[in-house]
Design a protein that fits this description.
two-stranded antiparallel ribbon; 25% strand; Rossmann fold; 8 strands; alpha/beta
Amino acid sequence: MRKRRKALRTYAFIDASNIIYGTRDEGWKVDFRKLFKYLSERYGSKKIFYFAGKDNKNLKQAHFYKLLAKIGYELILKEVKLYRQENGPMIRKANCDVDLTFYAMRDQDKYNSALFLTGDGDFFVLIDYLIKQKKAIRVIANGKRTAKEIRSLMGPNFTPISSLRKILRYKKG
C-alpha cells in the first residue's frame, strides 16, 4: 500500500516593518493586495498573518489596517511605544518579533509549510527549529537587510523580495 502524501497547508508570517523598510530601501513599495494574491496563489497560503505596530492617533494607518483586514490578512497589531536613546532622537517601536514567534509556534501543528517575510536574524532559532520539525520553510526578504545566518540556513529557499518587484510593486492610479 502506497503512503499518501500530505497536502501542503501553508501559513505566512509577515514582519511588516522588515518588509516595508526593506522594499523602501530598494526604492519601491509593496502592493499588499498583490502580495496577498501572490502568497495565496503561488504558495496556497491558508492564513496570512501581518505583524505590525499600531499608533491609535494615526488615522491613515487605521484606514490601511482596515483595508488589509478586508483583503484577508489576519492582523496582529501591537501598540507603538516611544523610546529615547541616551542623547538621541525618539524611536518608535512595536517589538512584534515575540508575537510572530508565538503565533508560528502556537499554530505549528496546523501547517506543514510556512513562509516568513522577514530577514531579521532574531528569527533564526524559530526557523531552524521548524526546519528540524520537518516543516517546509521559505524566507522572502530584502537580500541586503537579511541576516547572513538566515540566508545561509535557507540556501535556495531564500527569495530576495527584489526579485518579486515586478509582481508586487505598488503603482499609483
